[in-house]
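TL;DR need structure tokens for one chain.
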Amino acid sequence: MFTGLVEGVGTVEGVHATGRDMVLTIKAPFLLNECRVGDSICVDGVCLTVTDLSTSAFMVDVSQETLLRSTLGSLAIGDPVNLERAVRLTDRMGGHLVLGHVDGTGKIQKVEPKGRSWLIRVMIDTGLARYIIEKGSIAVDGISLTVNRCERNFFEVNIIPQTGRETKLLRKRPGDLVNIETDMIGKYVEKLLKDPGRPEGDPGTGGIDREFLLRHGYGE
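>> reply
TL;DR here they are.
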């Protein structure tokens, strides 16, 4: 589990294909003395498991499924990546709950200065747009951001100077791809509201609709 508050920008030091999977070696901008093999690290918004490490670099396996759903397959030696270590239960929740389970990719359409900040518009598939709401939370390359505007095929976010300095997002240009993870709450709500194919008496399923609410005393 992560918060979407990027700890720093790392550098890809090794890319090794293993069949349809990949092994990445990443140099971190922070000491890894508290990390252990088996720990989770969010790399450009993707939750990956540490398989080996030194004091300043770590290795992770990237599965075919992850390569298909994210931008990690296009990484090359020298590329920057946003990094965040897993949240502790005692940490402040400064961003929002980020799983590191990427839903898909978006394409940067524009990056415009707005006073001291920048506006970024990201084009997305309509299948992702249904989970994005204005003033809701979204993770872009692992960065927790607030949605300023959303339509059926794009959303816009505002990047403040602090976020610009601490992440690689402002290095992106129109046409570049980014990893997108929508807020998980919307997906759970959809599952609860629409779960066809279950018998009516099945506890915990069956869906919630107007008739269900009326039968249980709501909306009268």
